[in-house]
Amino acid sequence: MTVAFRRARPADLTAIVALLRDDALGAGRESADLQPYASAFADIDGDPRHLLVVGELDGEVIACLQATVLPSLTHGGRRRAQIEGVRVHGAHRGAGVGRSLLAWTIDWAGEQGCGVMQLTTDKARPDALRFYESLGFAATHEGLKRTLG
After folding, report:
1. CB 62 within 8 A of CB 97
2. How far is 98 from 18, CA to CA, in rounded Å?
3. What's this model's pTM, rounded to 2 decimal places?
4. How many C-beta atoms surround the C-beta of residue 120 within 10 A?
5. DSSP-derived secondary structure for the chain
6. In whole angstroms, how large is the CA radius of gyration of the chain?
7. Could you count the other beta carbons within 10 Å of the beta carbon of residue 90?
8. 70 CB contacts (<8 Å, ≥6 apart)?
9. Phi/psi of residue 62, each to 5°?
10. Looking at residue 110, what is its pLDDT?
């Protein structure tokens, strides 16, 4: 199985949103209305510090994630990469797609001059935490979020 990773295109949006909705947390959080996602996609795609990447197998989008390059004064002024929305289609989980997707993104972040890569995972996803730890991520900080509006 060879998955090709590439920058997402507007035509991928329906598949990306389906991936985001394809678990218990996403099903309750994500919407079927594509318009807000289309606006967000345009913002992401129009900013060179953002990357929405998809993994494609035999013409089908089976994985996605968003990466953002953040300038930072900490860590000696090195840039950092923030990772969000990592998803692999349920039929392809456990086959190494997520591992390949993150490896591809780590390389991309290095090319962007990032010295740190960070992400958060919901506490309701202990398998995801173990997965990220197996890739060398460490739970070194407590992450906090606040919903606005």
Report:
1. yes
2. 17
3. 0.91
4. 15
5. --PEEEE--GGGHHHHHHHHHSSHHHHHHS-S--HHHHHHHHHHHT-TTEEEEEEEETTEEEEEEEEEEE--SSGGG-EEEEEEEEEE-GGGTTTTHHHHHHHHHHHHHHHTTEEEEEE---TT-HHHHHHHHHTT----S--------
6. 15
7. 11
8. 49, 79, 80, 81, 82
9. -120, 0
10. 96
The confidence score (pLDDT) of residue 1 equals 72
Q: How many CB atoms lie within 10 A of CB 19?
A: 25
Ranges of the chain whose pLDDT falls below 50: none
Sign of CA dihedral 110, 131, 143, 24: positive
Residue (of 101, 105, 106, 107) closest to 89 by Cα position: 101
In this structure, are residues 115 and 79 in contact, taking their beta carbons and an 8 Å threshold? yes
Q: Are strands 50-57 and 4-7 parallel, antiparallel or unpaired?
A: antiparallel
